[in-house]
């Protein structure tokens, strides 16, 4: 019995150490990491959005990076086979997902780096959770230059989106 307690204590201490290191790597809440400026037009009849956005991202990590990842939340509602919709079919919202229709999505029409580079041709959908070929919610965008710790980049984009029938929150 003492061995089990010690084992559990050991696991707890390891978990505590990992949590502590992750917490230490997290910037304070008052440190701005990303700033969004969004202008959007809604067509209330079709529930369609058209927008332009400027994203200013500050690398608050200890590592340089040459790519950014974005979560396109509305694409989770693009059809019954997205990862999110498959997961909902197992849960309490099952009846709300089976009827289908009125799907939502977002499409990036233009994506430009602060030096004028067109990033749209290099944008790639990635599927880090389950390799689901029907899921288009996460994109990887290679950058034309490395962003060092503390570095700041601006991205300009245009997008079009379709709001889905409400079955769950969208992000």
Task: Jot down its keywords.
M1 family peptidase; 3 helices; three-stranded antiparallel sheet; 2 domains; 171 residues; Immunoglobulin-like; alpha+beta; signal
Structure, described:
It contains three helices and seven strands; from the N terminus they run H-E-E-E-H-H-E-E-E-E. The protein folds into two domains: 1-28; 32-162, Immunoglobulin-like. With 171 residues, it is of the alpha+beta class. The chain has helices spanning 2-25, 83-90, 94-98; strands spanning 34-43, 48-58, 65-71, 105-113, 124-126, 138-147, 152-162. The model is unreliable at 1-24 and 94-98 (pLDDT under 50). The termini are far apart. A hairpin with a 4-residue loop joins strand 1 (34-43) and strand 2 (48-58). The strands form two sheets. It has a four-stranded antiparallel beta sheet with strand order 1-2-7-4, with no helix packed on it. The longest helix is centred in the N-terminal third of the chain and has 24 residues, at 2-25. Residues 1-24 form the signal peptide. Keywords: Signal. This is M1 family peptidase.
């Amino acid at each position: 019995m003492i061995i089990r307690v010690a084992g559990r204590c050991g696991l707890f201490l390891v978990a505590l150490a990992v949590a502590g290191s992750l917490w230490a790597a997290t910037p304070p809440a008052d440190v701005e990491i990303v700033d969004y400026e969004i202008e959007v037009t809604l067509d209330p009849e079709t529930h369609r959005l058209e927008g332009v956005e400027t994203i200013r991202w500050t690398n608050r990590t200890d590592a340089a990076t040459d790519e950014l990842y974005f979560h396109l939340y509305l694409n989770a509602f693009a059809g019954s086979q997205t990862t999110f919709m498959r997961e909902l079919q197992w849960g309490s919202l099952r009846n709300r997902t089976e009827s289908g229709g009125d799907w939502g999505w977002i499409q990036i029409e233009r994506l430009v780096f602060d030096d004028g580079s067109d990033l749209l041709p290099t944008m790639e959908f990635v599927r880090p959770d389950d390799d689901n070929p029907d899921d288009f919610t996460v994109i990887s965008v290679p950058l034309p230059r490395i962003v060092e710790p503390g570095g700041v980049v601006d991205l300009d984009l245009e997008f079009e989106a379709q709001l889905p029938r409400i079955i769950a929150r969208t992000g």
